[in-house]
Amino acid sequence: MQLTLKTKTSPYLLAPNPGGMDLSSQVTGFDHEGRETTISVVNERPLTIFLNSREIVTAMTIGDYPEYLALGFLANQGMLSGYDDVSRIDYDEECEAVVVRTKSQTTYEEKLAKKTRTSGCAVGTVFGDMLEGLENISLPPARLRTSWLYALSHQINTTPSLYLEAGAIHGTVLCQQDQPLVYMEDVGRHNAVDKVAGWMLSEGAEASDKILYTTGRLTSEMVIKTATMGIPILASRSGFTAWGVEIARKIGLTLIGRLRGQRFVCLSGEERLIRDADLATVSSEAKKHGRKGGAK
Amino acid sequence: MQLTLKTKTSPYLLAPNPGGMDLSSQVTGFDHEGRETTISVVNERPLTIFLNSREIVTAMTIGDYPEYLALGFLANQGMLSGYDDVSRIDYDEECEAVVVRTKSQTTYEEKLAKKTRTSGCAVGTVFGDMLEGLENISLPPARLRTSWLYALSHQINTTPSLYLEAGAIHGTVLCQQDQPLVYMEDVGRHNAVDKVAGWMLSEGAEASDKILYTTGRLTSEMVIKTATMGIPILASRSGFTAWGVEIARKIGLTLIGRLRGQRFVCLSGEERLIRDADLATVSSEAKKHGRKGGAK
What we know:
2 copies of one chain form a homodimer. In chain A, 27% of the residues lie in helices and 28% in strands. Chain A has helices at residues 66-76, 108-117, 125-132, 146-158, 162-166, 191-203, 220-228, 242-251; strands at 24-31, 36-42, 45-51, 54-61, 86-92, 97-102, 144-145, 170-176, 179-186, 210-214, 233-236, 254-260, 263-268, 273-274. In chain A, helix 1 packs across helix 6 (191-203) and helix 7 (220-228) runs parallel beside helix 8 (242-251). The longest helix of chain A is centred in the middle third of the chain and has 13 residues, at 146-158.
């Protein structure tokens, strides 16, 4: 497992390592004036996730941290009863597959059987599974200082990353107070957040004092994943969907979007906010640090 | 089926109708200064797609054109032998489900059976299915004038849309020469392109003279979908992934990315380009027309 442990001067436990692995390629083409041009583009490859002997899904991923991705995906889909139940995770690079093995038999076989019996008038199985666990979720009464938000945003945007190197990629960062801790990137829609979830599970990380930052939209899936991970606060530089907001309000998740420079909008869980930042000292986002042509 | 037929002065056969349906909501929260603020956010809802009696997938969608979405999704996944085989499409709004019925039995049951037999060392079923048909694809020798590219980019960016209204959404536009024809938007990653595919199938639209424009990244999936639809040219204002480029080159698809203002990069199928635009007359993209906080 590739681990970029930083020295004490960096707050990160795990940070992007854009040059350290086969994560991007130099590709040559032609620009608008017909000149030959070489640009850096992100690699993507398929990764098939197995739960015991059953093939669950093939994700398109940049390929780092396949074990975290598999573990986090299965946990966020509600297919694992807990990390204690995981007996072994095997990654086969040649086969582009990860097998997560559990001690007890999982109930997913049962769920798949249920799927084939689903009548025409029922919400989809996968989706239904995601919603199922939400009723039992109770998020802790955390606090969020606006000074942390601004500090996090600045640090994350200036951290060397595959995004800054090649663009066209998502980022998700696990944070605590004003410190970004684990910064995952991926080309796949929800892989970055699933990798953070996998890291948290394997490290037994506490969720109640964490903040999740994402470059992606605040959709229902993103909100559900964050809540499933037990994290009470989700922030993004991108926008909202109506259902994302609705679910966040229902389960008491603090939802911050459109976080750019001084500006943000809080559409759920406003009571956790402590407005301690002096806005006069928060400069508008420097143009060079803006994520403008990011993953879309 | 909601159809926005435009008058002759507009080139669109089908254009976004941001105010016409329940596609966005007004949500009230608090801004960075603690002021109450109301913003427009995109709605999303689940749509479960059935092929005959089998539940295939639940997509998160804005909810317009469910029939096109279901049809296009199934076709792009290689689950339909052709539109001729489709006997009926039923959308049940209350159940949030679409059922696509075929005359002949589909082979998808067989494919699902194969899936459970897949050994550990095999690429994922869904993904394998997508790649399967590529060998038989032969894209036509179309031409692409750079003047069309700039005209399309300008028209699309200034078309009233849910994106301009609420942000956080993807757009895909079917174009012919310098005319955008069908502009679909969706919160779901590939729903917009699947809806275009569904429209093309039901209308029997010719693909060989078309250009597909997307706001999203040029990933392998996007390239495969475009090729499956028979469209020889794919352009985006966003970036590339390495595998997207590799597949485009293998199948001879013209791939244009990072299309903003005067600038673009062509990483595949350069031979289709005719550089007829006078760059001196193409102004750099006006700031107000840039898609900067788009769907991520």
